[in-house]
User: Fold this.
Amino acid sequence: MADVFENEQEDPSMLAARRLDWEIFLSRQPRRGRTLLMVVAEGSTLRAVARLLGLSDSGVQEEKRKVARALKDYMGANILSESTRQPVWRNNIMAGRERQACRAARV
Assistant:
């Protein structure tokens, strides 16, 4: 059981839910938006996206803004902060461990 709580990996249920949300979001994007997301996710630059889609740099920036607005509308305004936040259960476990360590230090 301790291995589960000490594991730094994301909770599998949250990961699966996020993956489902992402797949739905991606399927609703126009071709340009999907291409932009997929190429950048693979590690390419926006300039590579521009060449691939036949757009100027400013055209890719506009496409990026459209995708960002769509993502914010779909997943909520606080999606970036939520995606990097530690799960509450992990914080509770860490607080419990700190209390135990303080108690042990007093003895």
Q: What stands out?
A: Residues 10-106 form a domain with the Arc Repressor Mutant, subunit A fold (CATH 1.10.10.10). The chain has a mean pLDDT of 80. Residues 57-75 form the longest helix (19 residues). The two ends are 26 Å apart (CA to CA).
